[in-house]
Amino acid sequence: MSQYDYDAIIIGAGHNGLIVAATLAKAGQRVLLLEKQALIGGAAQTRELFPGCRFNVGAQEAGLLRQEIVHALGLTDHGLTFMESPATHFAPQPDGRALTIWRDLAQSRASIQQFSAADAARFADFVAYLQQMSERLEPILRQRPSLDDMGRLFVEEPELVRLATIPLSEFLDNWFEGNALKGILGGLGVSGMMRGPYAQGGVFMLLYQAAQGNGGLGGGRFVQGGMGQLAQALATAARAHGAEMRTNAAVASILLEEERAIGVRLDNGQEVSAAAVFSSLDARHTFFTLVGAPNLPPSFVRRVRSLKYRGCTAQVHLALRGLPDFRGATDRAQLSGHIVLAPGLAYLERAYDAAKYGDFSPNPYLDIVIPSLLDPTLAPAGQQVMSITMQYAPYDLRGKCWDDLAEPLGDAVLAALEQIAPGVGALVNQRRVMTPLDWEREWGLTEGNIYQGEMSMEQMFAMRPTPSGEHGGSPIQKLFLCGAAAHPGGGLTGLPGWTTGQLFTQNEHV
User: Fold this and answer.
1) How far is CA 502 from CA 155, 186, 467, 497, in A?
2) In this predicted structure, what is the pLDDT of residue 189?
3) 362 in any annotated domain
4) FRET pair for 289, CA 20 to 30 Å: which of 253, 282, 392, 431?
5) Is there a domain that residue 160 lies in?
6) Are 183 and 347 in contact (CB under 8 A)?
7) Residues 289 and 392 both lie in one domain
8) Are residues 92 and 195 in the same domain?
9) Cis ω on the peptide bond leading into residue 365 (within 30° of 0)?
10) Statement to judge: residues 321 and 359 lie in one domain
11) How high is the pLDDT of residue 321?
């Protein structure tokens, strides 16, 4: 009989923690999953913010989720249903026209044609190029690379290395001439990043999304019933294989014995032992709050302390009396995916300018979804729910506090929305603003970073979360990071949890 209560304890029931739990339980491990909140899902929850109106709080859709995970864990058998939008992106422009990227390539080219014949002609080649580059990136996303692996990548894939070093603006200017298309792509490249499109290294986010599918344009795969149904399907899959789960169970510390994790202590004082501990929290919370800096090598403490977070996104959730009238929209199918306010790279750079000086953008980049168009169950009959993710909203404000600026930010977002959807303000029944400080308070996302750490090149691959890389990103034996803080990073791909679970069951890095 094992000396431990469980083979594995997983801290945090976000999607990555749930994937690890289901993967290990399926492999025959005795698993306990602990979640401090009453609701599972982490930053991919569905909440009834207002009576009858349910919103995806955090992640808005599952376009990046790896389908191999869905199939391997049998998630469709456990209640997961996807809904794909006909359009992935709709971008109203200042002159009243709008660019629509459809799932159908020919339709997309026809829409691009109204802005630039040259861009329309090159679009298919661009999508093919992104796919080719992402296929080269794919092998390293699916493993836990070492520094030696990274050295080989530099030698064997010089084009990937080149793309990782040039500005996003340079890359897009080499392909296209029209501001409308470059605005959509530029927004994808800076998503969740505290930088503008003219900074070095922005191409990686495009490649990262292309590696998940959809030709780098991503998105438009919504979950029926809301994102919370993904968490429920994962939980059902894990329980079907014997995993135990506890909500309202906050972990106070990770128990150590001779630099080895042997279990956890809960807030109520209960101690639970395990042969291995997996944390889906970010590196700073895992190592400084749960392990404690005195229990770590000083060099590792310095590396964790120097990690960049710099959250820069906020969300505004609107309960609407009806569907807004967007400029340039002739078919409501155009509004079924992401509606973006990003009329060019210069606009994105100006939006970033305010954040450089510790303020939110008065003319922000907006990524808008109306999930009730595809799933009417999310709102009362005749009404709509809209969620707006905006940049830039820097966690660190100069001389101000987010508790005081949440509503002014909401006002700025609505003012920007009026530019592309005149009269939308009159349709708003209720609204809820979520700032980077809310991300930190609710989900423990340090500095409100939605990726559990910036996805800049110095914090990726073998350097995520730090360049040490041993033992699944931890100097503590039998303690593994399994959330977005681990390779390959954030976005709702499921890969951090999936690769961690696979490596553990294969007895690698254990």
Assistant:
1) 28, 34, 22, 9
2) 93
3) yes
4) 392
5) yes
6) yes
7) no
8) yes
9) no
10) yes
11) 98
* High-pLDDT (> 70) share of the chain, %: 97
pLDDT-derived band at 135 (thresholds 50, 70, 90) equals confident
458 pLDDT tier (thresholds 50, 70, 90): confident
> What are the φ and ψ backbone dihedral angles of 311, each rounded to 5 degrees?
-60, 145
What's CA 151's distance to the chain center, in Å?
Answer: 27
pLDDT band at residue 291 under the 50/70/90 scheme: very high
Collapsing DSSP to helix, strand or coil, 391 comes out as strand
> Domains in the chain: how many in total?
2
Q: What is the mean pLDDT of residues 63-91?
A: 96
Q: Which two tokens stand for residue 348?
A: 């994105």
The last residue of one of the domains, among 443, 460, 492, is 443
Instruction: Kindly state whether residues 324 and 428 are assigned to the same domain.
Output: yes
Length of the chain: 510
pLDDT for residue 335:
98
pTM: 0.95
CATH number (domain holding residue 254): 3.50.50.60
Say if residues 227 and 205 touch (Cβ distance below 8 Å): no
Kindly state the average pLDDT of the residues 92-121: 97
Per-residue tokens: 335: 């509004």
- The reply to whether 314 and 395 lie within a common domain is yes
- Domain CATH code at residue 314: 3.90.660
Alpha helices in 286-341 (DSSP H): 298-305
**Chain-centre distance of CA 300, in angstroms?**
26
Q: Which residue has the tokens 């913010």?
A: 49
Strands 479-481 and 271-279, sheet pairing: parallel
Does residue 1 sit within a domain? no
Residue 33 and residue 157 in one domain: no
Supply the range of the domain harboring residue 465. Answer: 6-47+56-82+224-307+452-505
Give the model's pLDDT for residue 466.
Answer: 87
pLDDT score of 510 more than 70: no
